Amino acid sequence: MQKQIKNQTGIWIDGNKALIVSFIGDEVKISEVNSDMDGVFLRDGQPIKTNFSGGNNDSHEKRLEERKKNNTRKFLKTVSDAVQKADELYIIGPGEMRTKLSRFMEAEYKIFTAKIKGVASCEKLRESQIITRMKSFFNLEEKIEL
Which of 130, 81, 79, 121 is nearest to 101 (CA)? Predict the structure, then answer.
């Protein structure tokens, strides 16, 4: 009988990008998803100037906040779609985005509830450090060489 190959995938995520590292058999696949968060506070390529004198600032701020929420949701959906074939997931990152992703996946895609094996805080890391941390989490240090 043939042994089934697992797809163990780690996601390092912050507000700007997600680095996706998939371990499938002896293969390592790395991809990146960029968010549109930087563009949230720009209009026509220019920074939006705020009006601190009161005025119509409330509705303007509400529109900006709504746009930011929509961009975040779109980013989380794109990341979720990119890892749907994973058998196991490990999500790490420096800010709140890792927990937002985990909650989003469990709420919007019920299949992820059993797949998420860990969510952990970590600082910004180089790509090689991210891969090493994910290999360690999945106990793949000896099995996969880069």
Answer: 79
